[in-house]
């Protein structure tokens, strides 16, 4: 008599082979769900009818997608992708006095696979405003206690004025770093300062 196990062995073996083939197929071709990487840290500076954006670079990113909305939480892509390693974006032609909300995401785009994109960055709220300087009276002496400094007085209204950046005009022959300072005209207290590198800009730039 032939042992029944011998007769059934091919069927057992077929089952094992099928199981191995199934497991091997899942391991090789299966795609496990992954959480998107966090987006970059986004910053903005509002200007006259424009907004300047900058963000931290993301490792291995090939491009960045800038998105804008007119209500918080709702954003649509604008312009062309910003190709790495550039991490700045200038958005002109905006309406002064209107809030704009921005986010940016990083993406890795290759010719072999679909783009892999990070989550959106933090949202920033930008409010473009018109020119702050409306009239100029040249030739006034520096206030007492600030001899040797040159500049201007800015008269502000009842609302607070937040200063994000300081700079100065560049002319030929200026190469040394310049200190730019903000004072309270009433108390003569220094409110902030910055050192401006004068080697970088071209003549006439600010």
Shape: elongated
CATH structural architecture of the largest domain:
Sandwich
Number of domains: 2
Compute the separation of the termini in Å.
Answer: 101 Å
Question: What is the averaged pLDDT score?
Answer: 76
Task: Kindly report the name of the CATH homologous superfamily of the largest domain.
Answer: Immunoglobulins
Describe the structure.
By secondary structure, the protein is α+β, with helices and mostly antiparallel strands. The chain folds into two domains: 42-126, Immunoglobulins (Immunoglobulin-like), CATH 2.60.40.10; 132-206, no CATH class. The protein has one helix spanning 4-29; strands at 42-47, 50-55, 63-71, 74-77, 82-83, 88-92, 100-108, 116-117, 124-126, 178-183, 190-196. The strands form three sheets. Strands 3, 4, 5, 7, 8 and 9 form a six-stranded antiparallel beta sheet that branches. A three-stranded antiparallel beta sheet has the order 1-2-6, with no helix packed on it. β1 and β2 (50-55) form a beta hairpin.
List keywords for this structure.
206 residues, 2 domains, 6-stranded antiparallel beta sheet, 3-stranded antiparallel beta sheet, 1 helix, 13% helix
Q: What is shown here, in short?
A:
This protein has 206 residues and is of the alpha+beta class.
Topology:
Elements: H1 4-29, E1 42-47, E2 50-55, E3 63-71, E4 74-77, E5 82-83, E6 88-92, E7 100-108, E8 116-117, E9 124-126, E10 178-183, E11 190-196
Antiparallel strand pairs: 1-2, 2-6, 3-4, 3-5, 3-7, 7-8, 7-9, 10-11
């Amino acid at each position: 008599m032939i042992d029944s196990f011998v007769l059934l062995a091919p069927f057992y073996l077929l089952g094992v082979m099928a199981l191995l083939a199934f497991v091997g197929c899942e391991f090789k071709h299966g795609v496990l769900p992954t959480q998107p990487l966090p987006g970059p840290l986004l910053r903005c500076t509002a200007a006259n009818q424009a907004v300047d954006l900058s963000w931290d670079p993301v490792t291995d990113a090939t491009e960045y997608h800038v998105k804008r909305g007119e209500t918080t939480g709702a954003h649509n892509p604008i312009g062309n992708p910003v190709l790495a390693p550039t991490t700045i974006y200038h958005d002109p032609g905006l309406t002064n006095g209107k809030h704009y909300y921005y986010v940016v995401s990083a993406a890795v785009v290759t010719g072999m696979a679909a783009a892999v994109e990070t989550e959106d960055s933090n949202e920033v709220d930008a409010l473009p405003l018109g020119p702050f300087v409306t009239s100029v009276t040249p030739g006034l002496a520096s206030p007492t206690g600030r001899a040797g400094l040159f500049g201007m007085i800015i008269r502000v209204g009842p609302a607070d004025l937040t200063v994000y950046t300081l700079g100065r005009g560049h002319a030929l022959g200026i190469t040394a770093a310049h200190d730019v300072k903000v004072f309270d005209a009433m108390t003569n207290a220094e409110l902030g300062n910055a050192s401006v590198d004068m080697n970088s800009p071209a003549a006439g730039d600010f």
